[in-house]
Amino acid sequence: MKVIGIGNAIIDVICKVSEEFLKRHSLTKSTMKLIDENEFKDLLSKLKIDETVSGGSVANSIVGLSQLGNDVGFIGKISDDQLGKNYENGLNKENVKYLYSKKKEKLSTGSCLILITPDSERTMCTYLGTAGKINENDINETDIQKSEITFLEGYLWDNGGPKKAFEKAIKTSNKVAMSLSDLFCVERHKNEFLDLVKNKIDITFANEQEIFSLIGAKSFEEVISFAKQIKKHIVITRGANGSMSIDNGKIFQCAANSNLKIIDLTGAGDLFAAGYLHGYLNKLGTTESLKHGTNLSTRIIQTLGARL
Questions:
Q1: Average per-residue pLDDT for the chain
Q2: CA 126, CA 239: separation in Å to the nearest integer?
Q3: Which CATH code for domain 3-7+56-105+132-300?
Q4: What phi and psi values does residue 134 have, to the nearest 5 degrees?
Q5: 16 strand-pairing partners
Q6: What are 277-301's pLDDT values in tens digits?
Q7: How far from chain centre, in Å, is Cα 39?
Q8: How does residue 199 score in pLDDT terms, banded at 50, 70 and 90?
Q9: pLDDT at 293
Q10: Sheet containing 149-153: which strands, arranged edge to edge?
Q11: What pTM value is reported for the model?
Q12: Residue 249 neighbours by CB under 8 Å, 6+ apart
């Protein structure tokens, strides 16, 4: 198998909202907020649903890799409820091997409200449900060992069970990639993430905001210096400024595509990672990998949701 993703198994509930809706509910645009089940139900009751998708950040990347013809799998914790069944069926339809045996859990399958404002920015409210309760017992070492890369998501990291699941996966993996996921995650787990990036992760995906926060950088030159110093593979998306890969001291860049009709930025980073990993795994070279990532992210932001 090319890649196994480990992440939050979340049903995405996509809704268009006004700027006023975000203000009324004290939501900060372009961030991800964790909410409890009551908050989730309250917000959902005030929304019109446009689409539902079997999502989660790394799951989106894994589906993208599958659509490019790669043999991939995914591990994410769900409950044996209707949402869980819908989630598993959604991945199976995308030819993703779902490597988790669901059972009845105390908490229901996780859900994420993706609120899209008229400027195409997305604000996420996530009820993790049982997704956030993943632990080392949910990680099959044999499956991990058969995969070229294990791809982890920063959203999943937390002390307790998720941390132990990460540690088991990293210890067993041939090579590990990780997405920093969100500025909220970086600021909440800065010391742990910095240790992971420096010492345990082979390929790190981040946007400019996340990597600046992680190392306390004031300029992009500091980011480049940091990447060269730790001699790791760091891939950075920079919005309109394109993308960059710093691999063992070598710098590669790719310009952003222009003249786009942007509809929804959901999944832009997820699909960029899918395109980049596709190039990397199939030995297309770093510049081509950046182009593949750019092209996939360009396509996804011109449609609604995180599926091509």
A1: 93
A2: 24
A3: 3.40.1190.20
A4: -60, 145
A5: 116
A6: 999 999 999 999 999 999 999 998 8
A7: 23
A8: very high
A9: 96
A10: 97-98, 72-75, 3-6, 149-153, 176-179, 203-207, 233-237, 243-247, 250-254
A11: 0.88
A12: 228, 231
Q: Which sign does the torsion angle of CA 43, 76, 150, 296 carry?
A: negative
Nearest CA-CA partner of 129 in 79, 54, 80, 56: 79
Query: Domain segments of the chain: what residues?
Result: 3-7+56-105+132-300
Calculate mean pLDDT across residues 79-93: 91
Structure tokens at 99: 């490597």
Angle in degrees, 0-180, between the axes of helices 208-215 and 190-199, rounded to the nearest 10: 100
Beta-carbon contacts of 65 under 8 Å, excluding residues fewer than 6 positions away, are 2, 3, 72, 274, 277, 278
Residue 264 pLDDT greater than 80, yes or no = no
Q: How far apart are CA 174 and CA 3, in angstroms?
A: 10
Residue pair 166/176 in contact by the 8 Å Cβ criterion: no
Residue 248 has a pLDDT of 85
Instruction: Give the model's confidence band at 41: pLDDT under 50 very low, under 70 low, under 90 confident, else very high.
Output: confident
The residue with tokens 């199939």 is 282
